[in-house]
Design brief:
The complex is a heterodimer of chains A (283) and B (235). By secondary structure, chain A is mainly alpha-helical. Chain A is built from eleven helices and two strands, in the order ααααβααααβααα. Chain B starts with a strand and ends with a helix. The chains are: A mainly alpha (283), B alpha/beta (235).
């Protein structure tokens, strides 16, 4: 039984990281109907920026703050310069742009920091079954999700963001500056991605070390329905738990396979995700 | 005053508006009539900037609308009531309404406008916390009009408000629009396929066919012109 508890706690901790990256994918999907394949690469870049700050100043928290802020800027810049031009084009264009960005970011990071993994610190002590670092992962993601919920449900900006996500044309007719709202959506999504990068980064980071994170985050987002921020958080937790049990009882080599099985089963049984809206919309 | 002068709008190779000119006087109700595909909806979309004319001028209160971004149109006093009710189904009634006045900085007046809308449509006040998707067709139309009024517009643009509504509800809607104009002096540009009910409240009527204006006169004169009614208005 204690093994089961250990696996459960471990699953919640890794699930928090999946939830953060899933949240960033969902925010972008809702705003611009783009799956951002560069999300892992963007998180990797901001984590490397944090690595530079931490190794120069010795302050983990300064690096943490810089990572989140640089995520905010990077998200906004990517939306303005790369996504805006393909906004009204066929969806495949945006997919190719984000894939291209991923390749570009990994290549640039490879030039700047090399392909040898660099050691990257944990926020707190990481030893034990549910270490202070695990607690921090869960609390920080829960806090981020709560802040986003407040933003969406309780502020004028959140109302504009929801309107622009559901009915962009109607929103513009009502005076919502949809372009600015989309930029903000990408910026906030990239902050969630940067948080995921900081949590998933240790103990080593390299230009490709967060690639797997995107796959797990995407699976979590699909479980949650791609459209629902709450679904993304729950999907992340569910995936974290299941993969933890798979790893503990069936062996660590089965983890990626397990994620794939979950993805296929969810898509077969509930194509709109467990928490997603059903496909049709009343007009 | 809204002045549309010699406007040509193309959708790809299709010429949807072919030299349309019309004027909506301040405080008047102008009905734009015509069959499906006559260019009525395109006319509204050209006015609010969702499509841009290739030729022609659109001026509102002396301001050029053709260079204004879509988000700016409501800020100069033109409020749009979109086709198919156009409410945001995933938001509550109250959120839909708030959205209509959100761009205005005068918070106190935003609250006052909200109160007035609820007084005008008590059914909306009762359902303020319900999702707009739960409303009936008539209630959705009321919500779309109420939301437009939240911006304290000088002109309302309505796209086929009677579409899909029962005749009794349509009659109530038309009476409501006339009351609103009489009370607040708001101008109304009403695009309708239902010519009979639109002309019953309009001061002026404009008949479109294949992107051209084929008739333009007082509403009463249009409604009594038998050959025009048979050829274009279907009643």
């Amino acid at each position: 039984m204690s093994r089961f508890w250990d696996l459960t706690l471990g699953g919640i901790s890794s699930g928090a990281t999946f939830a953060a990256i899933a949240l960033s994918l969902v925010l972008i999907w809702r705003a611009t109907r783009v799956v951002n394949f560069a999300q892992g690469g963007m998180a990797m870049v901001t984590t490397f920026i944090a690595y530079e700050v931490i190794s120069r100043t010795g302050s983990y928290w300064l690096g943490f703050g810089v990572a989140l802020v640089s995520g905010l800027v990077l998200g906004a810049v990517v939306e303005r310069t790369l996504i805006r031009p393909v906004e009204r084009k066929p969806p495949l264009n945006a997919v190719i742009v984000t894939l291209g960005l991923l390749v570009l970011l990994e290549a640039l990071a490879g030039m700047a920091w090399g392909v040898t993994p660099r050691s990257f610190p944990y926020a707190f002590d990481f030893r034990g079954t549910f270490s202070p670092s695990d607690a921090f992962a869960v609390l920080s993601v829960a806090g981020a999700a709560l802040l986003l919920l407040l933003l969406f449900q309780a502020t004028a900006t959140g109302l504009r963001m929801r309107a622009a996500a559901f009915e962009p044309e109607v929103a513009r007719l009502l005076g919502v500056r949809v372009g600015q709202v989309l930029t903000l959506g990408w910026a906030l999504a990239a902050v969630a991605g940067s948080l995921a990068g900081m949590l998933a980064g240790p103990p080593f980071i390299s230009p490709t070390s967060l690639d797997a994170l995107l796959v797990f985050g995407f699976t979590a987002a699909v479980i949650g329905g791609l459209d629902s921020p709450a679904g993304a958080v729950l999907g992340g937790l569910v995936l974290g738990l299941v993969l933890s049990y798979v790893s503990g009882y069936a062996g660590a080599d089965m983890v990626t396979f397990g994620a794939l099985v979950i993805l296929v089963v969810v898509l077969m049984v509930r194509p709109n995700g467990v928490f997603g809206r059903t496909g049709s919309r009343r007009v | 005053m809204l002045e549309i002068t010699d406007v040509v709008t193309n959708y790809g190779a299709i010429r949807a508006l072919d030299g349309v000119s019309l004027t909506v006087e301040d405080g008047s109700i102008t009905a734009v009539l015509g069959a499906n595909g006559a260019g009525k909806t395109t006319l509204l979309r050209t006015v609010n900037g969702l499509v841009r004319p290739t030729v022609g001028r659109i001026r509102f209160g002396g301001r050029d609308l053709t260079t204004l971004p879509v988000e700016g149109v409501v800020r100069v006093g033109l409020a749009h009531v979109p086709e198919g009710r156009g409410v945001i189904a995933e938001l509550t009634v109250e959120e839909n309404l708030r959205l209509g006045g959100l761009w205005r900085s005068d918070r106190a007046d935003r609250t006052a406008a909200g109160r007035e809308v609820f007084e005008m449509f008590p059914a909306l006040a009762e359902r303020r916390r319900r999702l707009a998707s739960t409303l009936s067709g008539g209630e959705r139309q009321m919500l779309a009009i109420g939301r437009a009024l939240m911006s304290r517009p000088t002109m309302l643009l309505l796209d086929e408000p009677s579409l899909g509504l029962a005749p009794r509800i349509t009659a109530r809607l038309m009476a409501l629009l006339r009351d609103l104009r009489d009370r607040t002096g708001v101008s109304v540009l009403l695009v309708e396929q239902n010519a009979r009910s639109a002309l019953s409240i309009a001061d002026r009527g404009v008949v479109l066919a294949l992107g051209r204006v084929v008739a333009q006169d007082d509403a009463a004169t249009l409604a009594s012109d038998e050959s025009l009614r048979h050829a274009y208005l279907g009643f």
